[in-house]
Amino acid sequence: xxxxxxxxxxxxxxxxxxxxxxxxxxxxxxxxxxxxxxxxxxxxxxxxxxxxxxxxxxxxxxxxxxxxxxxxxxxxxxxxxxxxxxxxxxxxxxxxxxxxxxxxxxxxxxxxxxxxxxxxxxxxxxxxxxxxxxxxxxxxxxxxxxxxxxxxxxxxxxxxxxxxxxxxxxxxxxxxxxxxxxxxxxxxxxxxxxxxxxxxxxxx
Amino acid sequence: xxxxxxxxxxxxxxxxxxxxxxxxxxxxxxxxxxxxxxxxxxxxxxxxxxxxxxxxxxxxxxxxxxxxxxxxxxxxxxxxxxxxxxxxxxxxxxxxxxxxxxxxxxxxxxxxxxxxxxxxxxxxxxxxxxxxxxxxxxxxxxxxxxxxxxxxxxxxxxxxxxxxxxxxxxxxxxxxxxxxxxxxxxxxxxxxxxxxxxxxxxxxxxxxxxxxxxxxxxxxxxxxxxxxxxxxx
Lengths: 204, 233
What we know:
The complex is a heterodimer.
Chain A lengths: L5 H58 L3 H10 L8 H13 L2 E11 L15 H4 L4 E11 L1 H12 L6 E9 L5 E11 L4 E2 L2 E5 L3
Antiparallel strand pairs in A: 1-2, 2-4, 3-4, 5-6
Helix pairs in contact in A: 3-5
Chain B lengths: L14 H58 L2 H22 L4 H11 L5 E10 L3 E10 L2 H13 L5 E9 L13 E10 L28 H4 L10
Antiparallel strand pairs in B: 1-2, 2-4, 3-4
């Protein structure tokens, strides 16, 4: 049996308004927040899925590269320079060019490609330096004729990995020969830093 | 005689009684409204409660799906790709900046007169920008020196030319047997872009020799460009 009195009707209306303001309205607000959150989750999931898909595609593309090409790339830009193999190769090139080496020695490594003489205008290019490989310098001294020097330089250029001449001093020597001192630079891959964290290095 | 309303034996409703019936209808409408509002609020509460549960469930599903997607991300593959990309970029950087030192020597050969004798030659690479070349050169006359400077200036490989410490009568080789001539220090700059390394399989076969023609102030006999011979260096 329903109450029909005026007071009970007013009480029902007050109760209804109370339900609306104390439960329904906050619940709807909460639902809206949850829906927004769901939207964010969906958006983020789409991004993650997209990254996963792209990563899969790139990894598949990487694996499809010819193994010989991969070997050539690793030879050209190795993970680390073998400080014994490089002087051996330089000596082999020198032998092929017909000159006799007086000295081949490892000088050291530098983190930038701009090794021997740094132009002040290049100092601010820190962003690009993050992708620069590590330069390793070798000192080479020998005596040779002019044609032998040219042959040696030509053979250095044809090498399977970079052997860049960064410093070259040629002076007259005895018996018509030329005394040569040069710095040859080769490179290995340096791991880039994560942006924003200069101390953190990505493990390889 | 027809019955008139005033002569009916049925008692008529008075105006006061009629107005009481109208009040009774208004109370009934208010009652209906109050009940509709109340039950509507109850129904809405139930609906909101159920929808909230559904939304919570959907949120949990989305979180689970995001977790799954994140779990599917392969760190190993990412590192592999990044390492390869770094290697490729660095290799490309070096290939782009690879130069032919031989081209510099060939440019010097083309631009050095026979009368010039190089005492020493220093070549320094400045980053990935240019080569600085410093040469101590002896010539027999000032005319030869001027001609030599002109040749270097006209060479497309050489960007800037500077002759310093020009002196007559002293020879850098310090060999007293040599006749006195003009000695000077030539400072040349060669941009890396002027001497790029081109692999042999990309070279276009040359069909003839390049001969630089003489300028108006240069004797014809010296206009033909001769390579530097071994004894001059």
